Amino acid sequence: MKNKVVIIGGGMVGAATAVALAKKGAQVIVVEQFPIDPIETFNDAQIDIRVSAINRFSERLLESLGAMPTLKASRTAPYTRLTAFESGKNVLSFDHTEVNTSHLGHIIENKLIQASLWKQFKGLPITVKHFETPARKIEQSESEITLTYDQEVLQADLLIAADGGRSHVRQLAGIGTTGWQYSQHCMGVLIELDAPQQTETWQQFKASGPVALLPMSAPFANLIWYDNGNKLKLLSQLSPEQLKMEIKAHFPTLPGDFKVLNSAVFPLARQHANHYVKGRVVLVGDAAHTINPLAGQGVNLGFKDVAALVDAVSLDDVGECGALKTYERMRRKDNLLMMSTMDACYFGFSNDIEPLRIAREFILKMANNAGPIKAQVLKHAMGDA
After folding, report:
1. Cα separation of 229 and 159, whole Å?
2. Is the omega angle on the peptide bond into residue 134 within 30 degrees of 0, that is, cis?
């Protein structure tokens, strides 16, 4: 059997790939620059400002990998309603009752998702390695792939790049990308909310960029603010009290009083690898595609990559070209569609052009009354279609 796999990057997608392939019977090495201790992470009372809106497809994957029970025993927040609006007159809302399910997804801190997956490493054929410097070169033959580090040489049947949007492996493999930087940046604001557990996540479109509320495990929530990068950087330098006043002036009324705990500003970029596969190198997650986080689909697309890759490969030769190309065909088209959809929403709503504003209000009104079509869109967003 040719079942030796090296995964570069032990974040959420890389860790999920490692667990899924190890459960299938592969011998896995995870190379991670910042190895974590799952027990220490779960015992850390500090709340992560980075959160993900995990849809039901991702929940099922995490459940199959053994991670979901750990998460449910920690800080998670199911949401049952998703709302999008502009002026407030025409509101597009999706409710769990429309698709006969208990919830639409969960808002979970990224560090907890990662820790829940690392916890599964124990008892599986997974080895974690830490190197101070990245690999110097990759060499491939028809039968294997070799990574050369200053400290060690690793040989495998398959190399998986799960090392993010600036993937070093992707560069070493000579895989190009297309994409651009968006003019806006995004600021995440962690708040402590004086209100009961919230189950609705909402997004308001503004000419300067959308704002959103992601309800976390009470009493916490995450506010998302899109705007000009320079403006957001200035806002992030304000005192918590000053930033709170700016939020109250720019956001819809929140469901209670709140306290600002932390904030961070992130640049926004769209990037898509020209290929997901080159020989025995395969890209997953942000190494293959980074998407506008408008609807929080980034990690969900990454988890879909994981499921498709694990389904496609065989341990007779985990790096067999035909299987990897099958994975690429399955995922590249779907990822491109989601990226283009998010861009259409981003460019269509982030302006104050009057004819477009009227068209947007009409679209929101029609979409909210679309019946079966609306339910199908919701199922797709949940990963159930």
Report:
1. 36
2. no
Distance CA 140, CA 147 (A): 9
Residues 6+ apart with CB under 8 A from 151: 131, 132
What ranges make up the beta strands (E) of 88-176? 91-95, 105-109, 126-129, 137-140, 145-148, 153-156, 158-161
Cα(7)–Cα(223) distance, integer angstroms: 33
Rounded CA-CA distance 263/223 in Å is: 9
Quick one: pLDDT at residue 374? Answer: 45
Q: Stretch 134-139: mean pLDDT, rounded? A: 96
| Extended beta strands in 153-283, E state | 153-156, 158-161, 177-194, 200-204, 211-215, 220-228, 257-273, 277-278, 281-283
d(CA 121, CA 23): 10
Instruction: Give the torsion sign (CA, 242, 247, 249, 255).
Output: negative
Summary count for the chain: helices (H), strands (E): 12, 20
- Report the percentage of the chain scoring pLDDT > 70: 88
CA atoms in the 13 A half-sphere facing the CB of 365: 10
- Asked if 256 and 194 count as a contact pair (C-beta separation under 8 A), the reply is yes
Dist CA 321 CA 123 (whole Å): 30
pLDDT, tens digit (0-9, with 9 covering 90-100), for 324-333: 999 999 999 9
Q: How far is CA 80 from CA 99, 170, 183, 223, in A?
A: 11, 38, 32, 18
CB atoms within 10 A of CB 46: 10
